[in-house]
Design a protein that fits this description.
Length: about 250
C-alpha cells in the first residue's frame, strides 16, 4: 500500500480536511469518499468507534493508518485532541445544486446572508444536518467549505447540501427572512419548502436579500437584549418549523 503521507500530499490540494474522529465518523455515515485517514493511536481510535460509532467501525478499521505524532502534526494546521485526521472528496457543486433545486422539498433551506464567522457557519451546518434541512447556502465571501467551517460542522457537510450562491441564484420557494422588524414567528407556520434567511452577525440582512423576502419574521426576545447568536437563531427557527409540522428523522447513533 502507498505510504499514507504520500497519498495525503497527493490529494490535500482539492480535498476536504476532516479534523478529528467525530468529523470522520459523520462524513463516513453520510457517504463521503475518504481516500486517506491517519491517527496517532489506532487502538484508541477504534475504541472510540466501538463506543460511539459501531456502524462505521469496520470501515474505520480498514481505513485508519497509524502515524507518529510528529507526522500527524505536520499534516494538519491544528492537531485535534482525538489525534485523527482524514481527507475526503468534496461533493460536486452540480450534485449540491440539483439537491437544492429539487422540488417538492420536504425540509427548508437555510440561507446565511454574508456571514462573517467561520465557527458560526459550521455550527449552523451541524444544526441543519440535525434537523434534516435540505441544505445550507451562504452568500458573500465566506467559503462554507473552509476547514474551520468543516471543523465547526463536525463533518456534517456531507449530510446536507452546502454551497455558496448569489442572492439572485437562491433556490425557489417562499423566502422567510429573520429580522427584528418582522412579525412574531410564533404566529407563522413555516412550510417545508421554505427558504429561511439569516443576516450576518454584524450588519443583519443585506438590502438585496431583504428586498427579495416574501415575509419578515422576528424571534421572541426580551426588550433591551440586542440579538441572538446566529446559530441560536437558526436553531430556534428550525425548531419552530419542526414543532409546527416538519420534523427530523428518527434519531441516529452519536
Amino acid at each position: 500500500m502507498t505510504d499514507p503521507v504520500i497519498r495525503w500530499r497527493e490529494r490535500v490540494g482539492g480535498a476536504v480536511l476532516l479534523d478529528g474522529f467525530h468529523a470522520l465518523k459523520h462524513a463516513l455515515r453520510f457517504g463521503a469518499q475518504v481516500p486517506v485517514a491517519v491517527t496517532t493511536d489506532r487502538r484508541a481510535a477504534l475504541a472510540l468507534a466501538d463506543e460511539l460509532a459501531g456502524d462505521v467501525r469496520d470501515t474505520l478499521d480498514a481505513l485508519l493508518t497509524e502515524v507518529p505524532q510528529e507526522t500527524y502534526a505536520s499534516l494538519v494546521p491544528r492537531p485535534h485532541p482525538t489525534g485523527v485526521a482524514a481527507l475526503a472528496v468534496r461533493p460536486s457543486r452540480e450534485a449540491n445544486l440539483r439537491a437544492l433545486a429539487h422540488t417538492p422539498r420536504t425540509a427548508p433551506i437555510v440561507v446565511l446572508d454574508n456571514p462573517r464567522n467561520l465557527g458560526n457557519a459550521g455550527a449552523v451546518i451541524r444544526l441543519a444536518a440535525g434537523f434534516g434541512a435540505t441544505g445550507v447556502v451562504t452568500t458573500g465571501t465566506l467559503d462554507p467549505w473552509h476547514p474551520t467551517v468543516v471543523r465547526g460542522g463536525a463533518g456534517l457537510h456531507f449530510a446536507t447540501a452546502v454551497e455558496r450562491l448569489e442572492v439572485e441564484e437562491l433556490p425557489a420557494g417562499p423566502l422567510f427572512a429573520l429580522d427584528p422588524e418582522g412579525d412574531d414567528i410564533r404566529g407563522t407556520k413555516l412550510p417545508d419548502d421554505a427558504v429561511l434567511a439569516f443576516g450576518s452577525e454584524r450588519s443583519g440582512l443585506s438590502a438585496e436579500l431583504r428586498a427579495r423576502a416574501d415575509h419578515l419574521l422576528a424571534l421572541p426576545m426580551r426588550p433591551q437584549v440586542s440579538s441572538y447568536n446566529l446559530a441560536t437563531s437558526v436553531a430556534m427557527t428550525l425548531y419552530h418549523w419542526s414543532a409546527t409540522g416538519g420534523a427530523p428523522t428518527a434519531s441516529q447513533p452519536s
